[in-house]
Amino acid sequence: MTKPVNLAPMMVPTTSGAIRSPKTAELVARTLRRMIVDGQLTEGDFLPHEADLMTHFQVSRPTLREAVRVLESERLVEVRRGSRTGARIRIPGPEIVARPAGLLLELSGTKLAEVMQARMVIEPAAAEMLAATANTEAFDELQSIIDVDLKEAYENGTLAQASVYFHRRMIELSGNSAMAMIAGMLNEIAERHIATTIHDGPMSRPQYNKLIRSYQKLVDLVRSGDGAAASAHWQRHMENSNKALLAGHEATRVRDVME
Hints:
One of its GO terms (molecular function) is DNA binding. This is FadR family transcriptional regulator. With 259 residues, this protein is mainly α. It has ten helices and four strands, in the order ββαααββααααααα. 25% of the residues are buried. It has a two-stranded antiparallel ribbon. It has a two-stranded antiparallel sheet with strand order 3-4. The chain folds into two domains: 22-89, Arc Repressor Mutant, subunit A; 94-246, Four Helix Bundle (Hemerythrin (Met), subunit A) (Up-down Bundle), CATH 1.20.120. Helices cover 64% and strands 3% of the residues. The protein has helices spanning 24-37, 50-57, 61-73, 95-107, 112-133, 136-156, 159-172, 177-196, 205-224, 227-246; strands spanning 12-13, 19-20, 77-78, 88-89.
């Protein structure tokens, strides 16, 4: 690592409006967080050894460990107790916001049907955006999910997870990161509820074949560049899917399924 980072205190407001100086550990955590965001530290990397970081930041071991605990609480690093390798960088996915969002939805009495409705607003729009990208690699990736991942998932009983992944990648490949984050969060909440409260057993072969035909039609439409048709098709697909999933559960409310 290069020259020590300047940890001169920065004045920050508190919740009461007063001004305080952040603790040194917070400043160290802030610098390491920025290194992760900027790509200097990437998924799977290990933080440098404690001694190197202590020298670099000119801080004590307790201060450094407090900074790492801050990052651990944010799900940005994974610390295996007793390991000699140190903290490992982990880039969080939608699950990091799904838990608090699910709790807020539960507190507000939100129905699962409302979560499904929100997904139905986002996904057809993403399908139309994806068709406009003319991104052959993206279309090929979705095709591979259909041909390989979904087929394997049906055979090993993990079709629900693979289907959620197809939905998620379709939105991510549309190119709108904000939409992908929101949809990913909603998908996490929906998937957990489907798995824990309204799962009715494995899908029959005719149902599976129908699902694959619908997915294939979406890929064919976005590959052809027909965004309007892709959006309309995916709207119908999700309406039918939600109707089937919510049958008998129309009044089911969102619950913190991680309790």
